[in-house]
Target: PadR family transcriptional regulator
Amino acid sequence: MNARTLCLAILNFGEATGYEIRKKSIEGEFSYFVDTSFGAIYPALSRLTDEGLVECRDEVHPGKPARKVYSITPKGRDAFVDALNQPIEQDVFKSPFLLTAMCCEFVDPKHMAKVIDERIEYLKNKLEFLSAAKSDCDMPGAAWTLHYGSAVFEASYEYLVKNRDALIAMSGSAQSAEAAE
Amino acid sequence: MNARTLCLAILNFGEATGYEIRKKSIEGEFSYFVDTSFGAIYPALSRLTDEGLVECRDEVHPGKPARKVYSITPKGRDAFVDALNQPIEQDVFKSPFLLTAMCCEFVDPKHMAKVIDERIEYLKNKLEFLSAAKSDCDMPGAAWTLHYGSAVFEASYEYLVKNRDALIAMSGSAQSAEAAE
DNA sequence: TGATTATATGTCGCACCAACATATGCTCGA
DNA sequence: TCGAGCATATGTTGGTGCGACATATAATCA
Model:
């Protein structure tokens, strides 16, 4: 799931600027399973344009900053469909939160409480967003994917709420032992 | 969660070679929320040695390849505890699988079936691994983390099993329309 | 009026992932 | 018993891409 394929996937459902592609990646329906940055998107769009997989149209409004609106070409659509039908890479999950939880012995209980409460708040917001997004989406796969996300986030949220206090209680044991020395 | 902190975290629970650190990252108890590669670990260990956060002991057995066994220093332990108590970065989840599912219109049903069945098989193995790991681990945070992983993978597994056929049924609609043109 | 936010494009340094190169010992089937 | 393949082990390299920075304009708001 490199920047190239991500750009093609988003452009396949409508034209967009680099700014909008990034925004959809981190805020829109794609946001909970893709992630990217300007430093990846802009070079990717340049290369895709060179290769004829996307087209770029300059939109100039007097007195406004110029926009570069990208749209997918037939060749690009073929390349996208081809990429989708290739064997896929493994999902990636990296969690500084779980590393902190696993090493809770060395973490100050107050810090641990802050960390887990922030995580709970984050999941709550994500769940609300996913519920709201369910209605206004016409792609058949999108609904399936949103329901999947809801199911997983829900399980995650419930575990954290139920086991919050237990984690905080375990925190700091090694640290206080060290301080006592 | 850079390579530095990861090395310190693993070395904090016992000495290890670069090879073993990588193995624990992708196979051990850490495996479902960290990920790394040799290209990150070996340079990180060199830098940590230079900075005095870890120590390196050459273990030479005649007729065997030399091993470099790393262990954490008191200074390294301090740095690790300090890193744990800093504000943490966001969790990262990237899923080529969900991107494929979301765009299932453009995916051949046979390919979709293969992709989801592989994912189900993967989750089944992970769940079995997590159950087995539950017993033989003495860190207090590890049990909490393993239960969290089980809860989330379980939710994910059940959703996939229940909604497998629905996803495959939705697949390929756009592709066959295109082929018919 | 000035501060901040949203839109918009882009660059740069450093980190790091995937693949390759290299070397040895062990196991197991032909 | 001999070679093939696998596990152990260390490292390099090329390209990708993340995070931070630079720049610019319009709108909003105190």
